[in-house]
Amino acid sequence: MINFIKKNIALIWAKNHVKGTQSFKENAVRNQEQVLLSLIRTAEKTLFGRTHQFENIKSVQDYQNRVQIADYEDLKPYIEKVKKGERHILWPETPEYFAKTSGTTSGSKYIPISKEAMPYQIAAAQSAIFHYIAQQNNADFVAGKMIFIQGSPELEEINGIKTGRLSGIVAHHIPSYLQKNRLPSLKTNLIEDWETKVDEIVKETEKENMTLISGIPPWLIMYFEKLIERNGKKITELFPNLQLIITGGVNYEPYREKMNELLGKQVDTLQTFPASEGFFAFQDDFEKEGLLLLTNHGIFYEFIPLEEFGRFDSAQRDLQRITLRDIELNRDYALILTTNSGLWAYSIGDVVRFISKDPYRILVSGRTKHFTSAFGEHVIAFEVEESLKATVEKFPAQITEFHLAPQVNPTEGLPYHEWFIEFEKEPENLENFRKNLDEEMRKRNSYYDDLISGKILQPLMISSLKKNAFQDYAKSEGKLGGQNKIPRLANDRKIAEFLERLKK
User: Fold this and answer.
1) Which of 141, 176, 269, 493 could be cross-linked to 243 through a Cys-Cys bond (beta carbons 3.0 to 4.6 Å apart)?
2) Which three-class secondary structure state does DSSP give residue 299?
3) Helix, strand counts (H, E) of the chain
4) Which of 321, 313, 369 lies closest to 345 in space, CA to CA?
5) Alpha carbon distance 357, 344 (integer Å)
6) What confidence score (pLDDT) does residue 288 get?
């Protein structure tokens, strides 16, 4: 009876919530301009605001003229002041949290999260779930157990500012009505060693009525494989009431085939786009592609055409900065953020592609620093993922993970792109698979096509890897688990040199 009531209350809440979101979907452009000016007014008296004469900024154009595009290294002097406990630097007072991420050549990044920003993170996640419930007219999962596979919730303090992984910070803000049904235990969540932690999660969950599972695909795959190894059953046999997978952080499509294999049958998937810098988008329509951009959640967005962004460096910041009003569909843009945590014109490193303006929906198409362009081709993640997807549809295979790197100095013949692929199931004819993959790449990247037809490159090569090759690489770098994701593309052979030792 209690579960019946919980499910019906969830349905009512969800449908009312979705009705209430219609306004921001229809007024996205106006909302964005209002968000920016509100952020400017709030931060006028901060060090950054005084330095950049925020009091004289009355429009988007004024802002773009006074505030240059920045990366973490540009904002680091301000962040270092905040770390020392100084107030009113990037944003009024001091942040509520630092999200600590691995990152730059100079060490970890400390991304500020203000007391104003955190509620938006939580509200966005809640909105994503409400949209799912309302559209599917199904809230059965609220009656079962839920698991959020995440980093440790243990936080340290830097001059009074709580600091830790974003997923660990979020764990402290999960609504009380979800806490009773939530796994794993705090004791397990605090385990630092990733493999040990996953083993304990398996033990804690294998006998439970799991109805919702959340995490990024590589974590989920590792968790599912250990469950199957231990129990000899597919995931939906083990958890027959499993209704929903929530995922984010990376494009889900390259993992879909592998996930479906482990699951045993189709399970609803909700895709999201969260980061330490904010929660940007989520899947609001399960019959349409793309993620709904959240335009009234304390973040102002700018977009730089990806081909322009290649010119971005410390000496040249005069790039074309486009707002939501002027974006074009099916074009790749570097994503620039101004946030209610004090990140100003901040280049986050993600690349997005708009596929709808009514409402504004995006695909996450790659990373600005993860590309292959040793020969001027500038191949991005979206192109390789879509090429691989099309090839797998034609020549069935299951792929655990892959990495693309240039081979500039082969022992013989022309240079080429080398694809390191860990297959769960290889295609029947690997050579036909290779040829088709090359054709798909040539269709999607005209520069690559020119290099092949001009005999500057030879067609791509595939190197098949041993099982768990990418896990072994992650271990070698101390990056197994957590929020670490192995780049799918590189412009050098640093990762490739390790993977070469793991060829079949």
Assistant:
1) 141
2) strand
3) 20, 20
4) 321
5) 25
6) 85
- Residue 54, classed as helix, strand or coil, is helix
CA–CA dist 484, 81 (Å, integer): 27
Q: Rounded to an integer, what distance in angstroms lies between the CA atom of residue 248 and that of residue 121?
A: 14
CA distance 415 to 193: 40
Is the separation of the CB atoms in 259 and 234 below 8 Å?
Answer: no
- With tokens 């901060």, the residue in question is 46
- Residue environment code for 49-59, b if the CB has 16+ CB neighbours within 10 A, otherwise e: beebebeebee
Q: How far is CA 93 from CA 88, 184, 337, 473, 494, in A?
A: 5, 35, 20, 41, 42
Residue 119: closest CA among 281, 293, 341: 341
pLDDT of residue 113: 96
**Measuring CA to CA, how many Å separate 249 from each of 137, 200, 366?**
26, 24, 11
Residue located via tokens 């596979």: 149
DSSP 8-state assignment for residue 325? G
What single-letter amino acid sits at 377? E
The dihedral over CA atoms of 39, 41, 44, 48, expressed in degrees to the nearest 10, equals: 20
- Predicted confidence at residue 120, as pLDDT, reads 93
C-beta neighbour count of 173 within 10 angstroms: 11
pLDDT attached to residue 312? 47
Distance of CA 139 to the CA centre of its chain: 26
Q: 350 pairs with which residues across the strands?
A: 367
Question: Are the CB atoms for 56 and 62 separated by under 8 Å?
Answer: yes
> Cα separation of 183 and 201, whole Å?
8
Listing DSSP states for 433-486 in one string gives: HHHHHHHHHHHH-HHHHHHHHTTSSPPPEEEEB-TTHHHHHHHHTT-SSTT---
CA 197, CA 201: separation in Å to the nearest integer?
6
Residues of the chain scoring pLDDT < 70: 1-6, 102-107, 175-179, 310-318, 479, 481-485
Number of Cβ within 10 Å of residue 489's Cβ equals 24
- Give me the residues paired with residue 334 across strands: 304, 351
Residue 303 CB neighbour total at 10 angstroms: 24
465 within 8 A of 499, measured Cβ to Cβ = yes
Domains of the chain: 1-369 (3.40.50.12780), 371-502 (3.30.300)
Say which amino acid occupies 448.
Answer: Y
- Those residues with Cβ within 8 angstroms of residue 119's Cβ, 6 or more apart along the chain or in another chain: none
> What is d(CA 91, CA 114) in angstroms, rounded to the nearest whole number?
8
> Residue 335 has what pLDDT?
96
Q: Residue 199's pLDDT is what?
A: 92
Q: Which residue has the tokens 């904002």?
A: 75
Closest CA to 166 of 58, 274, 38: 274
